[in-house]
Design brief:
Order of helices and strands: HEHEHEHEHEHHEEHE
CATH topology: Rossmann fold
Number of domains: 1
Strand content: 15-25%
CATH class: Alpha Beta
Shape: globular
Number of helices: 8
Strand order of the largest sheet: 3-2-1-4-5-8-6-7
Structural class: alpha/beta
Largest sheet: 8 strands, mixed
Radius of gyration: 16 Å
Distance between the termini: 32 Å
Number of strands: 8
CATH superfamily: Vaccinia Virus protein VP39
CATH architecture: 3-Layer(aba) Sandwich
């Protein structure tokens, strides 16, 4: 499996986004994914990023990004204005994940959500062995300095999708450099979901 800017989830997301579409990337960082999609898929993209120096780097890449809080930024957009709204490895850092997901599906026809799976066996073993908050290669932070607020698993996300009556169009699970299909809640490090609203 290839990477884009060293990110496996970016490679999967790039395959899910159709060419010539409109994209909003929430928590877009330095705009790497948006720039790649613009150059290789001819998308019309926009990004939202909280950190000022990252916004400047994204703009220097030639992508349209503005500084803002992704949790409130969605309020400014009309319904169904984007083909895709992307949130990659940021949902667990939001204060109100359900509000963010609902906003994504309101302003976009499709939501692409990638997140680290806290059900992965290495996380479970880390907690079992140490008796402390998990600390692994995927989650290298101490509990007091982690940006992660919500710890959820593949099963948790799928249950939320069912409760909200959304539909999953695609689900892709990654472990290292390969895709996994068997027992993804246990074996997947990263999950990528393509979701459509009710």
């Amino acid at each position: 499996m290839r990477d884009i800017y060293g990110r496996r989830d970016f490679a999967i997301i790039s395959e899910l986004v159709a060419a010539g579409t409109t994209v909003l990337d929430l928590g877009c960082g330095e705009g790497e994914l948006l720039a790649w999609l613009k150059d290789h898929k001819d998308v019309e993209g926009r990004g939202v990023e909280l950190t000022g120096n990252r916004v400047q780097k994204a703009i220097a890449r030639g992508v349209s990004v503005y500084q803002g809080d992704l949790e409130t930024a969605l309020d400014d957009y009309p319904d169904q204005v984007f083909d895709y709204v992307i949130l990659s490895q940021t949902l667990q850092e939001t204060r109100d994940p359900l509000r963010v997901l609902r906003g994504m599906l309101r302003v976009g026809r499709h939501a692409i959500v990638a997140f680290p799976n806290y059900g992965h066996y290495s996380v479970r073993l880390s907690t079992l062995r140490s008796g402390r908050a998990p600390k692994t290669g995927l989650f290298p932070y101490d509990w007091w300095d982690s940006p992660n607020i919500h710890f959820f698993t593949v099963l948790d996300f799928e249950e939320l999708v069912r409760r909200q009556k959304w539909s999953v169009e695609r689900r892709i699970f990654l472990s290292g450099q390969r895709q996994v299909e068997l027992f993804p809640n246990l074996t997947a490090e990263i999950a990528v979901f393509l979701v459509r609203g009710a």
